[in-house]
Amino acid sequence: MKPPRATLFRTAAALATLALGAAAVPAVSQTARAAATRTQAATAEAQWIDRATVVWKVEHTAATAEELRYAGGGTLRLAPATLTDAQKAAYPHLADRPAYRLDPRDRDKAATALRGPLTVVQRAAGDRDHVLHRTGVQIPGVLDDLYADRARRARLGPVFHGGRPTLSVWAPTARSVSLDLDGRTVAMRRDPGSGVWSVTGSPDWRDKQYRYRIRVWAPTVGKTVTNEVTDPYSTALTADSARSLVTDLADPRLAPAGWASLKKPEAVPLRDARIQELQIRDFSIADRTSAHPGQYLAFTDRGSDGLRHLTRLARSGTSYVHLLPAFDFGTVPERRSDQARPGCELAALPADSDQQQKCVAQAADRDGYNWGYDPLHYTVPEGSYASDPEGPARTREFRRMVQGLAHAGLRTVMDVVYNHTVAAGQDDKSVLDRIVPGYYQRLLDDGSVATSTCCPGTAPEHAMMGKLVVDSIVTWAREYKVDGFRFDLMGHHPKANILAVRKALDALTPAKDGVDGKSIILYGEGWDFGEAAGDARFVQATQRNMAGTGIATFSDRARDAVRGGGPFDEDPRVQGFASGLFTDPNGSPANGGPDEQRARLLHAQDLIKVGLSGNLADYTFTDTAGRRVKGSEVDYNGSPAGYAAAPGDALAYADAHDNETLYDALAYKLPATTSAADRARAQVVALATATLSQGPALSQAGTDLLRSKSLDRNSFDSGDWFNAIHWDCASGNGFGRGLPPAADNEPKWPYAKALLTNPAARPGCAEITGASAAYRDLLRISTTEKAFSQTTAEGVRQALSFPLSGTGETPGVITMRLGPLVVVFNATPSRQSQTVPALAGTPYALHPVQAHGADATVRTSGYERATGTFAVPGRTVAVFRAGAAGR
What we know:
This protein has about 900 residues and is of the alpha+beta class. Among the domains are: about 45-140, Immunoglobulin-like; about 155-230, Immunoglobulin-like, CATH 2.60.40; about 800-880, Sandwich (Immunoglobulin-like). The protein has 24 helices and 38 strands. The N and C termini lie far apart (about 65 Å). Mean pLDDT is about 95; it is low at about 1-40. It comes from Streptomyces rapamycinicus (strain ATCC 29253 / DSM 41530 / NRRL 5491 / AYB-994). GO terms for molecular function: pullulanase activity. InterPro entries: GH, Glyco_hydro_13_N, Glyco_hydro_b, Ig-like_fold, Ig_E-set, Pullul_strch, Pullul_strch_C, Pullulanase_N2. Keywords: Signal.
């Protein structure tokens, strides 16, 4: 099975509010659809929420009786009841449902009943055989009630004491569990209080292969099965995740030289973080100067073009590299010898051909490429990035990657995906659901697995799934020295679960754990959608709810305003601030007439101002209609634009791995006649809106180099041809490598075909290296000027203003005053003068970094001290600093 990147489907009315990280909605493959369908074949509309209570939508009447039946003819009697306030708070989506109370005389039978098939029936009173309604039973609530208190304290997976390993797995509904250890069967013992099965072995078990053999009732197939399953708490695996290994991560053999004494770059607070988002294979697979293309070890190749570029970014102010999923995922053959390659001479095909994408698609299910949002084992490094996926090399080489990034001046962030699994039910790649069927996955009202993420969803609101999230994160932090975590679809997690992660990390200390957990940063996708939307099941970790927690969420507000339109536009030419809306129209009817364009552009400028404040809800300014407004009062598709309580609550970005790269989006939106030089300048303007904002900012690796994926908006499975980063400008930027894959892009081919052969859309070395240098200058300014690092909302309010905002604001130009700085964002194609009367007489000059920097155009910016007038060339962001005389 090769399921798509975890993304979402929403109603047309809601699509406009989607954020970039969650907005690429791939076509679900037939295999994925089938897997989702078979995940929960039997209907289970009753929910056993604790040892005393069952909730079911069927109402009791005087003529009926209800009971819970289990294997062997057993019966648990039920009586109508009312949910308590506490129960309604714990299960808000069930608050209005009829409830039934188990007869106290039957409650001691619960543990036995849970180890087999369960059915709730409503029958005619006095007639046991006259069944009126019947359904299966969802059991996560009662399992938590019976076992979670003790199970939460258990140490699961392989744990070593004095060289002897103890293996433990939580399987409370299993009838039996044994250990298949290197081909022999070892009995395991069940703790009745926790539901944990465990066995302690001898030192010679170290590094031996194992799986658990679990005999359990599987409702998806309606029978008792014996599953041979790897350990969800695995610390190491054999190739293709076939078996777990009894591996101690503290084993000195797994530590590369210098690991214990590794000195990281100084920790940067989240509010000041400047982050490069990077996929491990993309980084080096096309880098001819790398000795380890596509591998963890590429980050140790100090002389490679890729690592040299990351080092330049680090010296300019980039503080973190955010790695797309590097845990064990289920969609790539891990042995290189098993990986298919496209069987065409791709480079020989025309720039607008559909043959490249056809050839790539033929190999896609068997090649070495996938973004990796398909978790199989959450706490083991992915084997396809290792020199040898068989055994412990992946652990050692992941650690060497972390070392390599540290030596380049960068800290490491991991993209983690606990919101879904690659498979569920009895699928071969289902791990959690074959150990405790019906527990770890989130179930809908009918008992089917939720798939709003386009994959089988998990339920971190359940105690042991929440524990797995916390335990896994702590392992990555302690054992792999990971410095930050980005949560995929974080809004599918309870806020309480993410706060539990924060609390567990904060408890890690250098003396005890070798890491300072309080310095570890957390951020994620706080989108609000699916079965959990609107806090339907719990208080979610969404944008609004995470404000004030110190855990950031991606902000889509300024991003959409800068780029224009959205990923679902039928016409991709809908323009925004940086792409020429009103100031350089592209002729698309989708943009409307001049008056409409002007109004949209001015509103986009208000959204960008909110973004520059760090998306603060209470930041007050004059909008372009002349009204005094708070950030929360600026409209973003029906939602408040400002939602943050402090700098660091919102993460700014102009592009990420989902949807078209920034260059490709601008390629669609800028007029076809826009020169390569102006396209590069527009790119820097767009990047500047995030780079010069309060709070953290992220950009996709290669975006400063005008990275293109040949217009592919969802490249999760598009192979190296469309995804690889080209660090050497002589190799181009990836544009014009054929029409993007049909599955997600074919409706846009009529627009793409002419564009891919447009010489103006093909940048050369001058544009590529120039854009990167100009971006690095802005990055250096943002990370060295204290004004960009306000620590409180009050500090932002005192330091930040937009002196020309109001009814007279210039369309396409934003003038920002920030402490001793004035920043002019000129997105128009022509030179613009901005007069700030209040600054007349105050000396300003172009910031020294830009005055002595790489961009000759920005050096032509000027300032008239007598009038307070700043003059900035077209498609340029200029930073002026007070204290030096302007002419």
